Every structure is written in C-alpha cells, then in structure tokens.
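Appendix B, example 12.
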Amino acid sequence: MTVPEARDGDGWVQVAEVGQLWEGELIAGRLRAAGIEAQVVDQTFHQEPLPKVRSFAVVRVLVPKEQEEEARRLLAEPVDLPEDAEPADDGDDGEVE
C-alpha cells in the first residue's frame, strides 16, 4: 500500500497515531463501522532486536479530509464495555521471582 501523504492536500488526514498495528486496526475498525473510510499506514521499522523506540514504531490512521471532524468526534467518545466483560488475566500477579 502506498502511504497517503496527509499534509499534501490529497484529501487524507491523520486522526490517530499509535505504536502497534493492532491498535491502528482497532481504531480503523471502529471508524469503518460508523461508515467512515479509514486507512492504516504501518511505518514501523521491522528489524530485530530493536527496543520499542517511538520513532521506529509509528502506525497512523488516516481518513478522508471531509470526514475528519466526524472521525475525531467519534474517537473522542468513550466506548462502553459489555456488561459481562471481565478483566483479562495476563498471569502476572505482580510478584517478582
């Protein structure tokens, strides 16, 4: 996928920037579910080992310029969890071995 340049006036603007691809896909999914076109641009540098350095881990979510206001409004709204949702148990009880 080519990277839409958000500042060159080609009609796409960035509405979110995250560090993980899955986060960008979740945001784009929420936007798409609301009828807003969204693109995820993964600009993460993929060479191991590499610490989590922000400049090497950038995932951007872009929307058409004419849908920017609607997208930002949607992303600013909190999302209610289902009533039966439970916290995930990652197995870390906080103890150091």
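Residues 1-8 have pLDDT under 50 and may be disordered. Strands lie at 12-18, 39-42, 59-64.
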